[in-house]
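User: quick one, sequence for these C-alpha cells?
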C-alpha cells in the first residue's frame, strides 16, 4: 500500500523549480583548452636549431632539390610545425611538415582519456577528468622532450650536409 503525502501548491512549485534548475544551471566546461600544446612551445624548440627553422620556414617547388627562396610566413620566429625529413605536398608546394598542431593535440587528448578507459570526456567523472588533465600534461611534456631530442640530432645531420655542400 502506498503512502499519501500532502503538500501545498507552492511547495510543489518550489520542488519542480529546484529540479529544473539542477538540469539547466551552467555546467563546468570540461575541455583540454588550458593544458593544450601551444604553437609557441614547438616554435621555441624549432628556433633553437637554425637548419630546422630554415627548412620549416621555406616553401619548396619539388620533393627533392634545393630550397626555394619564397618564405611561408611574415614572422619567421613563429614556426609551430612538427619537422619531418621528407617533403610533403600541399597543393603545388612542398613542406617539411605533415602533422599539424591540432593533430598532435587530438592524439594527446585521446591518449589521456584512454589512460582512464574512456574515449570521450563525457565518460569521465570530475575527479577522473582532473586526472586526465594531469595525464595530458605529462604526455605533452614527454612528447616535447622527445621531439627536442630528435630535432637536435636532425640539426647535426643537416649541419654536416651543409658543410659538404659548401
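Assistant:
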Amino acid at each position: 500500500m502506498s503512502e499519501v503525502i500532502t503538500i501545498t501548491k507552492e511547495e510543489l512549485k518550489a520542488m519542480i523549480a529546484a529540479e529544473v534548475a539542477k538540469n539547466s544551471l551552467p555546467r563546468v566546461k570540461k575541455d583540454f583548452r588550458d593544458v593544450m600544446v601551444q604553437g609557441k612551445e614547438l616554435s621555441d624548440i624549432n628556433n633553437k636549431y637554425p637548419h630546422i627553422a630554415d627548412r620549416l620556414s621555406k616553401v619548396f617547388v619539388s620533393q627533392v632539390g634545393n630550397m626555394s627562396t619564397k618564405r611561408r610566413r611574415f614572422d619567421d620566429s613563429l614556426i609551430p610545425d612538427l619537422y619531418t625529413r621528407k617533403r610533403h605536398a600541399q597543393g603545388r608546394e612542398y613542406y617539411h611538415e605533415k602533422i599539424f598542431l591540432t593533430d598532435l593535440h587530438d592524439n594527446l587528448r585521446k591518449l589521456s582519456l584512454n589512460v582512464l578507459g574512456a574515449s570521450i570526456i563525457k565518460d569521465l567523472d570530475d575527479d577522473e577528468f582532473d586526472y586526465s588533465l594531469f595525464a595530458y600534461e605529462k604526455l605533452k611534456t614527454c612528447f616535447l622532450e622527445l621531439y627536442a631530442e630528435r630535432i637536435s640530432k636532425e640539426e647535426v645531420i643537416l649541419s654536416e650536409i651543409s658543410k659538404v655542400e659548401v
